[in-house]
């Protein structure tokens, strides 16, 4: 028998901690899956606010609100440009049990409308958690580019004020921005492709991209891209084939995940060591993962390349100390 609106609301409040737990576990699972595929993306997760759950019941006039509200948990996967939407969609299909896919990019009427194409996936969350009826918890996953995500968040604040209909010219101007969003996405995609083909930049860019993808599974702390470029120039001299190195780095970070987590906790940007002494700067950088891997597997080659560079030798010795190896 369907729950009433009040019963569904009460159940949601009781189940919210479990839903949040499942959403966070699913987020970590997606980050792991997309990292293994080498896909650069940002994954966020949240459970629906209690007030939003109540409001949706009232607004939609559901007859069976507990079952009909399928976005009790929502995840968002944001990629740099639209060329990565299909790869990340396939990655999601490969690592989650899919209920349905809503892909408005395939709609016949999409081409002559100024609206961004909806790309959502309804999926079973990981962890095996289920509601009191034994039904596994689901989540709604939104797939967007960075440009579309910016437009969507901005337009939602302006166009969807409760009880207020925005002026037609305001709505139209916001939807016209979709054309600029599409152009922006195309130019970003073109620029990324050009950089990957540039003979002088491709090697270092690929290495930094690999490192950053893995680094984001440990922390989302900001880092210095200038320092990364200087360091990657040196590290690239110790790696012969970056087409196979990605899998090698992934294997290393999985085998030594707990050790790396302790290293970041003890020496990373929020650690007492860093805040007190200002040392261990590279432990706050994504290329630290490559340094740890090279210290583990090719430390003499790394030392030789470092000594020929203009980087301070103390930077490398600090990292060797963190990893617990001699130079």
UniProtKB/TrEMBL annotation:
Domain of life: Bacteria
Domain RelA/SpoT: 45-166
UniProt xrefs under InterPro entries: NT_sf (IPR043519), RelA_SpoT (IPR007685)
One Pfam family linked to the record: RelA_SpoT
Biological-process GO terms, alphabetical: guanosine tetraphosphate metabolic process
Record protein name field: RelA/SpoT domain-containing protein
Organism: Streptomyces filamentosus (Streptomyces roseosporus)
